[in-house]
Amino acid sequence: MKLGRGTVIFADLDPAIGHEQKALRPCVVVSDPDVTVDRRFPLVCVVPITGTPGQVFFTRRSYPV
């Protein structure tokens, strides 16, 4: 499976320690695509997406990837 940078996936983040996010959560893939396709070292780095209902944190500004 090829996961490009910026792809949103659902990941099971259990087990968690302390105040870490846990359970099934949406995450953004931040790994280099060349690393994620290497079958000898299958590593995908993700960042959980979280927020508070009713609060909007998105801006209209574009950021380079």
Features:
65 residues; mainly beta; three-stranded antiparallel β-sheet; 3 strands; flat
Care to describe what's here?
- With 65 residues, the protein is mainly beta.
- The protein has one domain.
- The chain has one helix and three strands; from the N terminus they run ββαβ.
- It has a three-stranded antiparallel sheet, with no helix packed on it.
- It starts with 7 loop residues before the first strand and ends in a 17-residue tail after the last strand.
Helix content: under 10%
Largest beta sheet: strand ordering: 1-2-3
| Whole-angstrom Rg | 14 Å
**Envelope shape:** flat
Low-confidence parts lasting 5 or more residues at pLDDT below 50? none
H and E string: EEHE
Tell me the total number of β-strands: 3
Number of domains: 1
- Sheet with the most strands, sense and barrel status: 3 strands, antiparallel
Please state the structural category. Answer: mainly beta
Overall pLDDT confidence = 76
The number of distinct helices, counting runs of at least 4 residues, comes to: 1
What is the CA–CA distance across the termini? 21 Å
The proportion of residues in beta strands is: 15-25%
